[in-house]
Automatic annotation (TrEMBL):
SUPFAM superfamilies: F-box domain
Pfam families in alphabetical order: F-box, PP2
CDD domains for the chain: F-box_AtSKIP3-like
Protein name: Phloem protein 2-B15, putative
PANTHER family (alphabetical): F-BOX DOMAIN-CONTAINING PROTEIN, F-BOX PROTEIN PP2-B13-LIKE
Highest taxon, organism lineage: Eukaryota
Domain F-box per the UniProt entry, residue ranges: 78-116
Source organism per UniProt: Theobroma cacao
Length: 350
């Protein structure tokens, strides 16, 4: 079948977004506007879509011969397999909404061929490494299961999909991080607390050298997406020495530029803060001169009851690079304690 000259018609007809046109009670007519080109060759190589797509090509040729401008088309004439191709080029949210168009769209929006496109390429490995057995009867059901946090890697990491877009988030547990002296019970203690999604968290007893590092491969994240890295923690009532000097935070992707900044691990006790400023104000200024200049970021409260501080952000491209994150407070030399570390989260930014 000759495809030359048809690409423009196809692109003008098929797109992830569509506009309602000439509705009726028993049938729906829709007009698709150009938004994204279709990889025609790839579609035709798929046996599951071959019949539907060839039928659609024939329909385009018929309209071209009749010299009719293709403004609207009754969607009931499109085969379900062709509709599935269209929906697979949209988003999970759009695919769900499209089920209201017609029975053909409703059936296509449930097909495995559509939802497999929304799943990460390594979803099979994620399912096999899940701590709990994931039971599902369709790819859509699996997708919805993965929209809730799933523990993987022997329970040391948490995986989650963003429901509306399918973008990937990971949380590296404290056990997956490199924390200086964390195996010495004199400085750190590993414990289980009900508020954590992981079996263990790391609680700082007392130490003068605070150093936390995390690392993940960029290929495990969604490509062409901007990510933020966040340290998840709690400050206990017995916390001390954490904010006499700013901590230095950093993020580095591959061998590229290293992002650096500063952050304060402040407790939420304002009275305690005023007392420390009164007695240690001059010393704080002297200690602060030892660290790099930065924004002096502060903790923010999360919906899950934990606190977080952003370590940095980066754009995740197509390649596979090491993403390294860290928080260090090693220049004040004062004793500090009362910090509970749950992990580091990497999630897409809005």
């Amino acid at each position: 079948m000759k495809r030359t000259g048809l690409r423009k018609d196809i692109c003008n007809f098929i797109a992830p977004s569509f506009v309602f046109c000439e509705p009726s009670f028993y049938s729906f007519s829709w007009k698709f506007r150009y938004n994204q080109q279709i990889p025609i060759g790839k579609v035709q190589q798929s046996n599951s879509f071959a019949f539907g797509f060839d039928s659609f090509i024939g329909l385009l040729q018929k309209n071209r011969k009749k010299k009719k401008k293709m403004e609207c088309l009754d969607m009931n004439v499109l085969p379900e397999s062709c509709v599935a191709v269209i929906l697979s080029l949209t988003s999970p949210a759009d695919a769900c909404k499209s089920s209201l168009v017609s029975s053909t769209f409703q059936s296509a929006s449930e097909s495995d061929s559509v939802w497999e496109r929304f799943l990460p390429s390594d979803y099979g490995e994620i399912v096999s490494k899940a701590s709990d057995n994931l039971e599902f009867s369709s790819k859509k059901e699996l997708y919805l299961l993965l929209c809730n946090p799933v523990l993987v890697a022997d329970g040391k990491m948490s995986f989650k999909l963003e429901r509306s877009t399918g973008r990937i988030s990971y949380i590296l547990s404290a056990r997956e991080l490199s924390i200086t002296w964390s195996n010495d019970p004199m400085y750190w203690v590993w414990k289980s607390i009900p508020e954590s999604r992981f079996a263990e968290v790391a609680e700082l007893k007392t130490v003068s050298w605070l150093e936390i590092h995390g690392k993940i491969r960029s290929k495990t994240l969604t490509p062409n997406t901007r990510y933020g890295a966040y340290l998840l923690l709690k400050i206990t009532d017995r916390a001390f020495g954490l904010d006499l000097i700013p901590s230095e935070i950093s993020l580095e992707v591959g061998n590229g530029a290293k992002f650096t900044n500063t952050a304060y691990l402040r407790s939420q006790d304002s009275k305690k803060q005023r007392m420390e400023d009164l007695f240690y104000g001059n010393r704080k200024q002297m200690l602060k001169s030892r660290v790099i200049e930065g924004e002096d970021r502060v903790l923010s409260e999360r919906e899950d009851g934990w606190m977080e501080i952003e370590l940095g952000e980066f754009f995740n491209g197509e390649g596979d690079k090491a993403v390294k994150m860290s928080l260090m407070e090693v220049k004040g030399h004062q004793l500090k304690g009362g910090l509970i570390v749950e992990g580091i989260e990497l999630r897409p930014k809005s």
